[in-house]
Amino acid sequence: MNKDWLEKDFYASLGVAKDATPEEIKKKYRKLARELHPDKNPGDAKAEEKFKEVSEAYDVLSDVEKRKEYNEARTAFASGGFRPGAGGPRGAASNVNMEDLFGGNDGGFGDLLGGIFNRGRGARTQQPRRGADLESHLNLSFDDALDGVTVPLRLSSEVACETCRGTGARPGTSARTCLDCQGSGQVARNAGGFAFAETCPTCRGRGQVIEDPCPSCHGSGVGAKSRTVQVRIPAGVKDGAKIRVAGKGAPGERGGPSGDLFVLVHVSPHPLFTRKADSIAFTVPVSFAEAALGAQITVPTPRDGNVTLKIPAGTTSGRTFRVKGKGITRKDNSRGDVLVTVEVAVPQKLSDEAKAALESYAEATSDVDPRAGLMNLAGQ
Ligand SMILES: [Zn+2]
Ligand SMILES: [Zn+2]
Known about the structure:
Layout: H1 3-6, H2 10-14, H3 22-36, H4 45-61, H5 64-78, H6 98-102, E1 134-140, H7 142-147, E2 149-160, E3 176-177, E4 186-191, E5 194-199, E6 208-209, E7 222-233, E8 242-245, E9 261-267, E10 274-276, E11 279-286, H8 288-293, E12 295-301, E13 305-311, E14 320-323, E15 338-344, H9 352-364, H10 374-377
Helix pairs in contact: 3-4
The structure holds zinc ion (2 copies).
């Protein structure tokens, strides 16, 4: 049992009723965690303290088993059945789950937040260990994707608590080996003549007991830290691209190397332009007169503004013109092209004057059959 629990009212911490449903608890936690997250309150020790309190409360109340255990402990305590010294406090707030916090894509932190990763708690090895890889999402405008951009990415990750250097014990004290399991983390239980090995309930399998927990991390040894990483997004990056930033993931433990950071790029679609390899394509309407007689039309291009495009007389609908060097920046710093496809626009409404002009045009071209040869092609 957890001595620490008896002093804490997790229901009050989250501001929920004792009989709150898991959904209510989750909802309340997400709201509070968003408000109190260290990333949102840099340097605010009070908010950080409250964030940890809320995380610890959620850690227990979101877990059916733990919640039951907690309720029973509180009840036993209230009725005088509690015997102090039954065990040490267990690490709290070690399972801050980003999915719970931010619920997929509706995250209030926008796109620039890396995932808090969960450190493996069980390993008691003293070997150096490489830090975890982190993944972060980045929304990029269509224009920024054309030429590349350097973006500061704010990442929040779990690190060793600064106060206790990750031991979980109050500075000046240290964790002691669990007496019930002699540090193995497992105890034998006899049931009907058989011996079962089970996780030591006193230390919960950690093999160590923290009697005087660190006030900053409540014994978990884990603290949150945010940092900013400058990420160079290469020109021409495509939607869905995953960019690896070596060595910018979570720091390693005991001198191990850092993990990598993977940035998943989402490029916003453009209302007019689409990408075709390193070219930019779009369609412009032209009038029949412009296509038939030829014209100089003004068309937009990305980033550089407008250009004049010469449409030769007799241009067919669907013909594509190339504007060189206005497309996507390539690796060698040259640029792809802009591909402009013209489409003859048919007027939906005609003035009397225009109608009369078209009728006389039809008359003047009555000897020209645009479907001549069609029947031959069809084989009749
Ligand atoms: Zn600590
Ligand atoms: Zn133990």
